[in-house]
C-alpha cells in the first residue's frame, strides 16, 4: 500500500516537509503497522490542508528563532512549522525533537 495517496499531498509541503512526512510514515509503518501509518498520514495531511486553506492557525514559539515568519501547530505527537504568509509547510517533526535546534 502506498504511503502517499494517489491524489498527492495537500500541495503546500516544502521539499523538506515532504521528506519529513515520508520518514514519519516509514517509521510508523515499521513500528505500528500500515493502518496506523495511513491514519497518521491522513491526520497530517488534513492539518496541512487546513493550513493551506487558512482554517487553522498556529502560534509563535519564543524558544525558536527563525529567519522568516514561522508559526507552529501541534498535531500530537508532531509539530508542524509553516510560513503564515504563503501557508507553506516548512517542517513536520516529532515533538520530542529539539525544535529550536532545527531552526538555528
Rg from C-alpha positions? 13 Å
* Number of helical elements: 3
DSSP strand tally = 3
The biggest beta sheet is recorded as: 3 strands, antiparallel
Broad structural category: alpha+beta
Can you give the helix content as a percent range? 40-55%
Structural overview:
This protein is of the alpha+beta class and 104 residues long. The chain has helices spanning 15-32, 34-53, 99-102, and strands at residues 71-75, 78-82, 89-94. The chain has a three-stranded antiparallel sheet with strand order 1-2-3. A hairpin with a 2-residue loop joins strand 1 and strand 2. The protein is globular, with a radius of gyration of 13 Å. It starts with 14 loop residues before the first helix and ends with a helix. The mean pLDDT is 90.
Amino acid at each position: 500500500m502506498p504511503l502517499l495517496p494517489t491524489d498527492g499531498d495537500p500541495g503546500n509541503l516544502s521539499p523538506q516537509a515532504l521528506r519529513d512526512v515520508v520518514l514519519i510514515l516509514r517509521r510508523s509503518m515499521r513500528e505500528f503497522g500500515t493502518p496506523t501509518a495511513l491514519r497518521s498520514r491522513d491526520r497530517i495531511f488534513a492539518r496541512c490542508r487546513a493550513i493551506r486553506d487558512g482554517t487553522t492557525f498556529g502560534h509563535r514559539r519564543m524558544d525558536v528563532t527563525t529567519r522568516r515568519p514561522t508559526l507552529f501547530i501541534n498535531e500530537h505527537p508532531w509539530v508542524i512549522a509553516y510560513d503564515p504568509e504563503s501557508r507553506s509547510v516548512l517542517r513536520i517533526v516529532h515533538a520530542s525533537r529539539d525544535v529550536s535546534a532545527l531552526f538555528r
